[in-house]
Amino acid sequence: MNTTISLILFKIEENQFALHLESVERVIHAVFITELPKSPDVIIGVINLEGEIIPVVNLRKRFNIKSKDIHPNDQFIIAHTESRVVALVVDKVGDVIEKATNEIISNNDVLPHLPFVNGLIATNDGLIVINDIDNFLSLEEEIMLERALINT
Predict the structure, then answer these.
(1) Helix spans in 74-126 (H)
(2) Of 102, 106, 126, 122, nearest to 114 (Cα)?
(3) Residue pair 75/29 in contact by the 8 Å Cβ criterion
(4) CB-CB neighbours of 2 under 10 Å
(5) Which of 139, 26, 2 is nearest to 76 (CA)?
(6) Separation CA 15–CA 129 (nearest Å)
């Protein structure tokens, strides 16, 4: 039996990505980020969202996309992993789409060494990379982040 999944699309530069919708809490406009000393390179800092301190993940660094300053019209996707809530900096959030599981290309077939990629979708405009948010941070990065958060 073929099932469908719901994905939220977003862009960084011209690159298209997606997240499983059930992991997304909300989308907000960019806000001030406080640096977090001794955190992993992929963590820009933290934001205070309604009293909750949330680490901000630099997807540009994770995917080797040219770095840029965060602008007020950038957006943060607030999403939850198995262990914490994170904010993902993106240029633009797009639509929510439904895809049949048989339309998704397994990352093991194309990108087996990228643990933070869950699969790919082929479109007329190119590929959409489906992110595995639970694996964005390596175990070492998780430990570094936890230590940095405790020491703030």
Answers:
(1) 107-110
(2) 106
(3) yes
(4) 7
(5) 26
(6) 8
What tens digit of pLDDT does each residue of 52-70 get? 999 999 989 888 899 999 9
111-130 tens-digit pLDDT: 667 777 888 898 888 889 99
d(CA 55, CA 149): 9
Q: List the structure tokens of 67.
A: 């770095």
CATH superfamily of 4-150: CheA-289, Domain 4 (2.40.50.180)
Helix (H, G, I), strand (E, B) or coil at 13: coil
Give which of 95, 56, 96, 62 is closest to 77, Cα–Cα: 56
> Please, what's the largest Cα pairwise distance for the chain?
49
> What distance lies between CA 19 and its chain's CA centroid?
7
Please name the amino acid found at residue 121.
Answer: I
Helices (H), 7-151: 59-62, 107-110, 139-150
CB proximity list for 43: less than 8 A, separation 6 or greater = 36, 55, 56, 57, 58, 141, 145, 148
